[in-house]
């Protein structure tokens, strides 16, 4: 009896320790764990070696010590756990039922110690123990998948340290066996799938086999699917799924992958409380995915999201957090992207600070150290390019060289590090001109190319940088073989099937430049391919404002391409390229409204689907610009619609007879624009300035070189004029206080435009000077480009001289058009049987701007004129003229007249508009949502309604173009501020001409009516010398 008392006592103690350990697993109270260890030690020490339960007491103690190690990180705890577990195992035979589980825990303990010690012998011991556990466990045993999973984790740990690919192969095999042996309803199944996916992703990073990446995504998807929202590891599985999508996007740049990565990361963040150790990791990954999408789409909203996520991650992670360096590095990358977009050097300083701290926190043997060094080198490179300090480029080179040195050739990031090293050498060469630097740049970029498969998403970047190195060497040493090599690499980059459209466009532009210098046979091909990238640069999956922003990097290219065609006497191609490359966004939106009867007749189901997607896509593109904020879900829906639309378009073009469906118009179609008079395209390029004339009856485009005009002439004229007019840009009661009495200035500008632009055209067309009456004058349509779009071509002439005055209005009636297509009459353009006119007046501006009493007079005169006709009038004044009211009536009224303040938004031109009731603004982005039949006149008696964005001179981002887009056949607008007392006179005289008899007016006579009204102003001695009173009024369209 005495010998049995200690056994009973130790068993009771062991049972108590086991219950306390279970309680700790739920509560994580450290006091419970300390009690567990104390009691387990006593039970283990008191039990004799002959006791059949001693091994159980030892196992409980070892597990408790391991948990304490997880909390404290004290290696003494894990050392003791390993020693106790070893003693416990020695007490039982290999065929004991507990032996496999003890071996499994023994291996796990060694694995945990390895994570802290990095001692290879620890991970080797872990693998040996776990392999033994797997061998001793039959397949039907519930613990077999557990041992297999832990074995896979140990192989994965060893792979991370030693980079032996056989280890990741064995990790995958172990995880796959664990998954196969585990039913879907087992709560551990998602964990096994998740780690299997992560191992496939690791192997992909080293071998680059897309099959591994697809397997990774499939495993992570299944893990997320099997884990309920309240599963403790659901956020972790979502995070890893997002990472797989992010890796896939980095390799293939399929936009749907980055959208899915963002969605997964957002869900992971939402499911994770702020005090959870994984929250910073999830936030950093979310931020990185937004940064990646920004680099692809150039949408600054993504940058805002990225920085917010990264900053919160850094804030939540203490300096001893194992991933703090990673969070800092990714924050630095977001700052660097901000610099590239906003060109504010403060962002580079912030990036450098973040990268430097990341590098300092990371030992050289850490796998991420090269990544942090590479990013640090990039930031120093940008700092050098901005400030020109040689110390920056030396630091960039040092960081890039160390990143390359620490990275094996089979690592998927090695090509990027080599490419960036080449960029640093090139930066220094451009500053110092040392041949050795550019040679080393070329070698580094060539090495990057050799390590990169042809279908890699970054291949175009490496090709472009290599081309840039050859081009720079050519510029310094004039070796034409270098220029040949530059052409080859730029052409390959521009024609790449993967990669950022922005990068590909820039490569195409450089291809054109090099080919032009060499007069290479690929010159026209280069222009054509790069032009076709414009619609990709301004992708339909982006809102209007973001598309316009993307096109700012293409400024001047279309004009240069046309000048090249002119240089080669291919005037037809020049016209086609200008039509394709100007007003890109308006052209895209018109495509979404195009009717396609032929397609409906032959493929009705496909036509209906395409029509439905087009309508949804158009509405999606406006939503962002009319709402304060758009959700990530809306953005992803917009992306998906654009991808679907492009897919359907390719399908339609594959159908017999539809290969030209929605393709850019050919010259034969464009000739229809000249039905009412010659159309004069004024191409103003850095290469040359030319007039390209389209006339009915002429089989070819007429070319007229504007030999006396240069791009700089036109640009300087615009700058000078802008200085004179640089004020708020609203309709004002008195303009004298805003504009100086510099009549000579206006005379000089108008004279220069006459001699250098207009007179050569009129001479070529042999137009005679007419008498004062405008009824005898022919019409002419000006389609200016570049800086000429901001100059008053319509008023060019010789004024104020002692001799006879000469002005364009004595020869022709001038109208403007943003494109040739805008002048082509649609089949549905019919003469209306009655006039429905919407008149909107806002004499007050709710205290925002000056009062406009003249607007009431203006509207009353219109009302008087209309009263004699069979017409309906809708008058909206004061509080009745809200944006909602006006948009509703615009769809129903054939004519519209606005008399109010105009607002020009220089930051976001689609927000330019008209000031209506209740301080509301009728924005351009509101107007273009309207659908209405073609025809009618829009009279915009407000300031700057035909003033575009100087960054987008060829995109016609103004209200006049917007009115043409929604179907008005003609538009009277203003180039800048107008006088409140002059506007009613112009309106009265225009309508007096249009409504001169009892017949219904024709909007196509509006240009003639405006010509008469302005002519009448010029005859008034009080006004004629005040150019700013009559100069701003212009006509657009038919």
Structure description:
- Among the domains are: 1-91, Serine Threonine Protein Phosphatase 5, Tetratricopeptide repeat, CATH 1.25.40; 595-661; 667-816, Nucleotidyltransferase, domain 5 (2-Layer Sandwich), CATH 3.30.420; 830-1002, Rossmann fold.
- Helices cover 60% and strands 7% of the residues.
- With 1038 residues, the protein is of the alpha/beta class.
- The protein contains 42 helices and 16 strands.
- The termini are far apart.
- A hairpin with a 7-residue loop joins strand 2 and strand 3 (702-705).
Tag the structure with descriptive keywords.
42 helices; Nucleotidyltransferase, domain 5; Serine Threonine Protein Phosphatase 5, Tetratricopeptide repeat; 1038 residues; CHAT_dom; TPR-like protein; disordered N terminus; six-stranded mixed β-sheet; TPR-like_helical_dom_sf; five-stranded mixed β-sheet; TPR_rpt
Describe, in short, the structure shown.
This protein is α/β, with parallel strands linked by helices and 1038 residues long. Helix 15 packs parallel to helix 17 and helix 16 (345-360) packs antiparallel against helix 17 (369-387).
């Amino acid at each position: 009896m005495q010998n049995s008392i200690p056994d009973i006592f130790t068993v009771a103690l062991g049972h108590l320790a086991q219950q306390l350990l279970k309680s700790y697993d739920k509560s994580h109270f450290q006091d419970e764990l300390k009690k567990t260890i104390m009691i387990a030690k006593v039970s283990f020490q008191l039990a004799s070696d002959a006791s059949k339960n001693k091994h159980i007491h030892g196992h409980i103690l070892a597990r408790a010590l391991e948990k304490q190690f997880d909390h404290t990180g004290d290696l003494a705890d894990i050392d003791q756990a390993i020693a106790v577990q070893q003693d416990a195992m020695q007490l039982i035979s290999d065929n004991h039922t507990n032996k496999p589980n003890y071996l499994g825990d023994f291996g796990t303990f060694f694995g945990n110690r390895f994570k802290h010690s990095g001692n290879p012998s620890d991970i080797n011991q872990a693998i040996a123990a776990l392999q033994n556990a797997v061998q001793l466990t039959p397949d039907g045993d519930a613990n077999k998948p557990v041992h297999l999973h832990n074995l896979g984790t140990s192989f994965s740990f060893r792979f991370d340290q030693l980079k032996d690919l056989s280890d990741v192969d064995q990790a995958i095999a172990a995880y796959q066996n664990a998954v196969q042996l585990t039913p879907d309803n087992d709560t551990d199944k998602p964990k096994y799938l998740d780690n299997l996916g992560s191992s496939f992703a690791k192997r992909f990073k080293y071998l680059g086999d897309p099959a591994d990446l697809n397997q990774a995504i499939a495993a992570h998807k299944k893990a997320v699917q099997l884990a309920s929202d309240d599963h403790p590891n659901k956020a972790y599985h979502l995070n890893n799924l997002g990472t797989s999508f992010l890796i896939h996007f980095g390799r293939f740049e399929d936009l749907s992958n980055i959208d899915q990565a963002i969605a997964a990361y957002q869900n992971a963040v939402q499911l994770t409380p702020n005090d959870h150790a994984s929250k910073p990791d999830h936030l950093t990954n979310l931020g990185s995915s937004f940064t990646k999408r920004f680099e692809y789409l150039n949408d600054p909203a993504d940058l805002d999201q990225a920085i917010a996520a990264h900053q919160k991650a850094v804030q939540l992670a203490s300096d001893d957090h194992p991933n703090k360096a990673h969070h800092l590095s990714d924050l630095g990358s977001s700052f660097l992207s901000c610099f590239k977009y906003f060109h504010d050097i403060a962002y580079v300083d912030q990036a450098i600070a973040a990268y430097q701290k990341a590098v300092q926190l990371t030992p050289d043997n850490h796998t991420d150290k090269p990544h942090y060094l590479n990013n640090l080198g990039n930031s120093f490179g940008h700092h050098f390019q901005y400030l020109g300090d040689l110390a920056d480029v030396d630091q960039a080179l040092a960081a890039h060289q160390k990143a390359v040195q620490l990275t094996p050739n089979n690592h998927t990031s090695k090509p990027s590090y080599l490419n960036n090293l080449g960029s640093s050498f090139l930066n220094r060469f451009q500053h110092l001109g040392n041949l050795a630097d550019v040679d080393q740049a070329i070698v580094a970029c060539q090495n990057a190319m050799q390590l990169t498969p042809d279908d890699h998403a970054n291949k175009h970047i490496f090709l472009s940088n290599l081309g840039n190195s050859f081009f720079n060497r050519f510029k310094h040493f004039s070796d034409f073989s270098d220029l040949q090599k530059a052409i080859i690499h730029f052409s390959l980059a521009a024609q790449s099937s993967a990669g950022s459209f922005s990068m590909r466009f820039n490569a195409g532009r450089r291809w054109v430049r090099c080919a032009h210098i060499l007069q290479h046979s690929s010159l026209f091909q280069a222009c054509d391919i790069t032009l076709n990238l414009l619609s990709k640069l301004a992708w339909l999956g982006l809102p209007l404002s973001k598309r316009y922003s993307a096109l700012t990097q293409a400024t001047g290219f279309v004009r240069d391409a046309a000048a090249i065609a002119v240089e080669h006497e291919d005037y037809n191609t020049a016209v086609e390229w200008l039509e394709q490359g100007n007003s890109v966004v308006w052209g895209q939106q018109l495509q979404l409204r195009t009717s396609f009867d032929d397609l409906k007749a032959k493929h009705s189901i496909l036509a209906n689907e395409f029509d439905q997607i087009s309508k949804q896509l158009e509405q999606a593109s406006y939503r962002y610009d009319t709402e304060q904020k758009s959700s990530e879900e809306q953005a992803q829906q917009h992306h998906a619609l654009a991808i679907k639309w492009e897919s359907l378009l390719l399908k339609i073009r594959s159908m017999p007879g539809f290969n030209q469906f929605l393709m850019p118009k050919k010259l034969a179609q464009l000739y229809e624009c000249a039905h009412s008079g010659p159309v004069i395209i004024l191409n103003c390029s850095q290469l040359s300035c030319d007039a390209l004339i389209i006339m009915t009856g002429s089989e070819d485009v007429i070319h007229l070189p504007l030999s006396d005009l240069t791009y700089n002439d036109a640009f300087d004229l615009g700058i000078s004029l802008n200085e004179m007019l640089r004020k708020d840009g609203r309709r004002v009661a008195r303009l004298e206080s805003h504009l100086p009495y510099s009549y000579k200035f206006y005379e000089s500008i108008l004279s220069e435009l006459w001699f250098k632009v207009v007179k050569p055209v009129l001479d070529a067309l042999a137009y005679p000077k007419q008498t004062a009456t405008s009824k005898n004058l022919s019409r002419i349509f000006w389609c200016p480009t570049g800086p000429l779009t901001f100059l008053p071509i319509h008023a060019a002439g010789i004024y104020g001289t002692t001799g006879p005055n000469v002005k364009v209005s004595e020869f022709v009636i001038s109208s403007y058009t943003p494109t040739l297509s805008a002048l082509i009459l649609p089949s549905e353009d019919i003469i209306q049987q009655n006039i429905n006119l919407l008149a909107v007046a806002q004499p007050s501006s709710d205290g925002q701007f000056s009062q406009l009493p003249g607007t009431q007079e203006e509207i009353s005169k219109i009302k008087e004129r209309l009263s004699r006709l069979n017409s309906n009038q809708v008058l909206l004044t004061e509080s009745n003229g809200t944006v909602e009211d006006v948009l509703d009536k615009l769809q129903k009224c054939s004519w519209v007249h606005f008399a109010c303040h105009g607002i020009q938004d220089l930051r976001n031109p689609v927000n330019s508009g008209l000031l209506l009731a209740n301080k509301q603004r009728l924005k351009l982005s509101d107007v273009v949502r309207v659908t209405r039949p073609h025809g009618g006149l829009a009279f915009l008696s407000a300031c700057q309604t035909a003033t575009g964005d100087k960054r987008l001179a060829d995109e016609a981002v103004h209200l006049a173009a917007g009115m043409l887009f929604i179907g008005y056949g003609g538009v009277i607008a203003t180039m800048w501020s107008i006088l409140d007392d002059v506007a009613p006179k112009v309106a009265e005289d225009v309508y007096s001409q249009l409504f001169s008899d009892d017949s219904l007016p024709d909007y196509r006579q509006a240009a003639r009516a405006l010509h008469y009204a302005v002519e009448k102003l010029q005859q008034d001695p009080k006004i004629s010398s005040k150019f700013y009173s009559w100069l701003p009024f212009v006509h657009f369209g038919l």
